[in-house]
């Protein structure tokens, strides 16, 4: 049975060859295009299972391709792994907020690229576990229905905001979220949270979790993720 179909979008021929070769070696079906316009056309003709998308494209750039795909119901479910040059933190943040699933900075190791692609494809639709399902990982037990967190079977008292942040991140292990995305996910009328205060809540959360707090990882310049 053939593996998933991956669309690779990059205007550099050597990058296309490198990515395509390594993905095909893993058994994936691979299509390649060199422009944003061609990417949108290719997705319209045959939606892939995942897109490896360079952000620096002529005319219609990668961010615009991501924006168009993620706001269309027929294509918003397609995972996107962004390729970015170093120093493009602002673009990475924008891409993640638009709905991209992961990113890799150039130059990159082909083995890391393949590993990231495999990780994204393994995730459930939208990368989420069932909303009320308990989460067990890293000596943690998170019970959404009871708003209860156990570390090594010992209860830990968290504020509602701390609990919401932990549950949001743990529901999507490995996904990187910006502070703005975390705010959007956990804010409530009675528990105001700002992007600046997210750092404070995370510090408090880690302290209460003790050694298990290492599972909440800082992604420099971007935000946070829950360790896979």
Helix-strand category? alpha/beta
CATH homologous superfamily designation of the largest domain: Response regulator
Order of helices and strands: EHEHEHEHEHEEEEHEHHEE
What is the CATH architecture term of the largest domain? Answer: 3-Layer(aba) Sandwich
- Taken together, the total number of domains comes to 2
Radius of gyration, in Å, reads 19 Å
- Give the N-to-C terminal Cα separation: 28 Å
Strand content: 15-25%
Question: What descriptors fit this protein?
Answer:
alpha/beta; 8 helices; Rossmann fold; 228 residues
What does this structure look like?
With 228 residues, the chain is an alpha/beta fold. It folds into two domains: 5-122, Response regulator (Rossmann fold); 135-226, Winged helix-like DNA-binding domain superfamily/Winged helix DNA-binding domain (Arc Repressor Mutant, subunit A). 39% of the residues lie in helices and 22% in strands. A five-stranded parallel β-sheet has the order 2-1-3-4-5, sandwiched between helices. Helix 1 packs across helix 5 (110-122), helix 2 (36-45) packs parallel to helix 3 and helix 6 (160-170) packs across helix 8. The chain starts with a strand and ends with a strand.
């Amino acid at each position: 049975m053939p593996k998933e179909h991956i669309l690779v979008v990059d205007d550099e021929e050597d990058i296309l060859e490198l990515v395509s070769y390594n993905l095909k070696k893993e058994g994936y079906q691979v299509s390649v295009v060199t422009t944003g316009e061609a990417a949108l056309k290719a997705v319209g003709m045959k939606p892939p299972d995942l897109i490896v998308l360079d952000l620096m494209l002529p005319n219609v750039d990668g961010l615009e391709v991501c924006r168009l795909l993620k706001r269309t119901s027929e294509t918003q479910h397609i995972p996107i792994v962004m390729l970015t040059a170093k120093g493009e933190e602002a673009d990475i943040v924008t891409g993640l907020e638009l709905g991209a699933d992961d990113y890799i900075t150039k130059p990159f190791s082909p083995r890391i690229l393949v590993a990231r692609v495999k990780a994204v494809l393994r995730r459930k639709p939208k990368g989420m576990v069932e909303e009320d399902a308990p989460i067990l990982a890293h000596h943690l037990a998170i019970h959404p229905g009871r708003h209860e967190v156990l570390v090594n079977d010992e209860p830990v008292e968290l504020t509602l905001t701390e609990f919401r942040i932990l549950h949001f991140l743990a529901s999507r292990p490995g996904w990187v979220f910006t502070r703005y995305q975390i705010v959007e996910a956990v804010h409530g009328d009675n528990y105001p949270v700002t992007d600046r205060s997210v750092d404070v809540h995370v510090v408090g959360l880690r302290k209460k979790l003790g050694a298990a707090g290492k599972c909440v990882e800082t992604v420099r310049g971007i935000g946070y993720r829950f360790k896979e």
